[in-house]
Amino acid sequence: MDNESGFLGNPMNFTPEWWTFVLMGICALILGGLAFAMPLWFAEFFGLFIGFLVIIYSIITLVQGIKSKEGAGASIALILLAIIGIIIGFLIVTSALAAFLLTTYLIAFWMLMIAFSDIWMAFTGSAGTGYKILLAIAGVFALIIGFYILMFPILGTGIMIQVISIFAMVWGIFMIITGLAGKGASAAVAAETN
Prior knowledge:
It is a single chain. The chain is mainly alpha-helical. The protein has one domain. The protein has 6 helices and no strands. It is extended, with a radius of gyration of 23 Å. The two termini are 23 Å apart.
């Protein structure tokens, strides 16, 4: 009998319970439905969420800066970064426009990064010609979308959030089906062993 174990000593062949798939699917359906029905509200909510994360991370950085034993330079740098982060986080949390714009520009810059990396790989990669052509097309498409969102932030962000929400809802449906199929399979295995 092979006695392999993972990092924490748990078996490597961990399979989640069926209900975790159903729960993830239901959450994805709910969040996807809310995002599709109210994309601009969802963008603001996402921006606020990031704002709170920035504040929490900055407070942790401030504590690290105060307790740092790396020397005065490292402590001052951490404290300054923490103060700047806290200020930016509070600006995002207290301004709906800032939260919305944060989400908008994160999506736009993400698309531009995808565009440049795809185009770069299309011209420098060692894959076949067909693959390189597809990468170049995907890169140009992402570049157009990124610039479109930068030029028309409200419309572009609303459309992108709706596309992502449709994906979330479809993924949620598949997760629920996977969970229910897993429940049926585990019940069949349990019946065979008894």
